[in-house]
Amino acid sequence: MPPSLREWLPEGHLAWFVLAAVEEMDLSGFYGVYRLDGHGRPAHEPAMMVALLLYAYAKGQRSSRVIERACVEDVAFRVIAASEVPDHTTVARFRQRHEAALAGLFGDVLGMCAQAGLAKVGVIAIDGTKIHASASRHSNRDYEQIAREILAEAEVVDREEDERYGEARGDELPAHLSTEQGRRGWLREAKRQLDEKRAEEARPRALAPRAAEGRKAPIGGRARCGVPSERRL
Fold first, then answer.
1. How far, rounded to the nearest angstrom, does the alpha carbon of residue 56 sit from its chain's CA centroid?
2. Which band of pLDDT confidence, cut at 50, 70 and 90, is reported for residue 189?
3. Which residues contact 228 (CB under 8 A, 6 or more apart)?
4. Positive or negative CA dihedral for 175, 56, 76, 98?
């Protein structure tokens, strides 16, 4: 059997806290929407999407494109997403569709993080000043307001990246480098051109010593100008 990704994540990792917190939450609102609007089952399990967004935002990630990429490259994200990779459009639409519910839920999670002391030790990447101020007042509404601000930031980031990248994620390799065959062919040609360039640059350096040698006067082979030769006796 292949190794489990869950074994790669330390027991004390924030991802486990987020997963456990989501398990304790009432997620009926996230499921009910799909049953009522006639679209059938969601593309990804809502509980997973909720945990994924909460973890990403708690770690300071606002971009849906970064979240998509992290689901491929980051072990903690892969554990939370159960090795699924929701694309950035799906992530953004889920956030937009459930913004109000996410704000309330994320506010609760932030409150629990503050109560557990995770903000003080820098485990969560949220403005510590805001967290500590809310903790001093013990107001869930304050945490929910922080969550709403984070969701608003995520919306702005996604909108800017949509304008910049269109439908693309933004970090894709060019089409001719996206396959093994294409990469190998391009690299071989690039290396050939590099070798030719180095050879051309080496030629003048190789010829320079020969040219300098040709300009040297042969030892004893030429009389000194203006100096008469000695008269033989």
1. 12
2. confident
3. none
4. negative
Question: What is the distance between the alpha carbons of residues 184 and 186, in angstroms, rounded to a whole number?
Answer: 6
Structure tokens at 40: 């059938």
Domain boundaries, the chain: 5-172, 176-205
- Which residue type occupies 110? L
Token pair, residue 205, equals 């350096």
Question: CA dihedral in degrees (56, 61, 64, 69; nearest 10)?
Answer: -80
Q: What is residue 167's predicted lDDT score, i.e. its pLDDT?
A: 85
For the record, the structure tokens of 138 come out as 């013990």
Residues in contact with 45: Cβ distance below 8 Å, sequence separation at least 6, in sequence order? 82
Q: Which residue has the tokens 């929407």?
A: 33
Residue type at 171? D
Asked if residue 84 lies in contact with residue 43, where contact means CB atoms within 8 angstroms, the answer is no
Residue 233 has a pLDDT of: 44
HEC sequence for the chain:
CCCCHHHHCCCCCHHHHHHHHHHHCCCHHHHHHHHHCCCCCCCCCHHHHHHHHHHHHHCCCCCHHHHHHHHHHCHHHHHHCCCCCCCHHHHHHHHHHCHHHHHHHHHHHHHHHHHCCCCCCCCCCCCHHHHHHHHHHCCHHHHHHHHHHHHHHHHHHHHHHHHHHCCCCCCCCCHHHCCHHHHHHHHHHHHHHHHHHHHHHHHHHHHHHHHHHHCCCCCCCCCCCCCCCCCCC
Is pLDDT of 174 > 70?
A: yes
